[in-house]
Amino acid sequence: MKTKLTNSTLFLFTILTFLGAFLQSCKEEGCMDPKASNFSYEAQKDDGSCDYGGCTDPNALNFDEDALYNNGTCRYLGDVKLFTRKTLPGPDNNKFISVLVAGEYIGSISATCNTQTPVCTTGCSAIIFSEKSSGSYSYRYYEITQTNATVFDTIFISSPKNFQVIGGKCTAIIIE
Q1: Residue 7 pLDDT
Q2: Considering Cα of 22, then 28, then 33, then 37, what sign does the dihedral take?
Q3: Nearest-angstrom CA–CA distance, 139 and 151
């Protein structure tokens, strides 16, 4: 059976094709790949702009196995060692320094470090604040004497002091 196209059918077909093409061109363009760093939830039409940058170092905290190039956003853990030059442990082995970072107890130092410029490999008594994300932190230290097995006296409380954890490195801090 042959179908004969009338002028009105041909006109309607032309209008619908034009309208479909017009509506298709009104879609929001952008990157539609959720693995891309510039993925757009609003995109309804992929415009080829997807960017696959990220951290390409497998040792970094934020390693991105889908990244095609390193965009400089890699983050690493760092360590801090805290030493003191204050006279410890005291005449009766009863004096020590306790340290809190961001309000949490991280440890105590019970011996003086007499090294002029201690570094992380110095063998002095120290508190190790390890495998922390890079960034700014603050600590406060307390000088404490122990008068007997159950009695402790705080003889000094420092003001908060700021320090930096640097990714991939160890930093020495001297409490004086």
Answers
A1: 66
A2: positive
A3: 24
Cis check for the bond before 118: say yes or no (omega within 30 of 0): no
- Beta bridge partners, 100, equal 105, 140
Q: Are strands 135-148 and 53-54 parallel, antiparallel or unpaired?
A: unpaired
Supply 173's token pair: 């801090």
CB 128 within 8 A of CB 79: yes
CATH of domain 77-175: 2.60.40.10
Non-local CB neighbours of 171 within 8 Å, separated by 6+ positions: 78, 79, 80, 81, 120, 163, 164, 165
Type of residue found at 165? V
> 100: pLDDT confidence band, cut at 50, 70 and 90?
very high
Residues of the chain with CATH 2.60.40.10: 77-175
Per-residue pLDDT tens over the stretch 104-121:
999 999 899 998 888 999
Please enumerate in sequence order all residues whose Cβ is within 8 A of that of 32, keeping only pairs 6 or more positions apart, or say none.
39, 40, 43, 45, 46, 50
For 86-95, the pLDDT digits (tens) are: 888 776 778 9
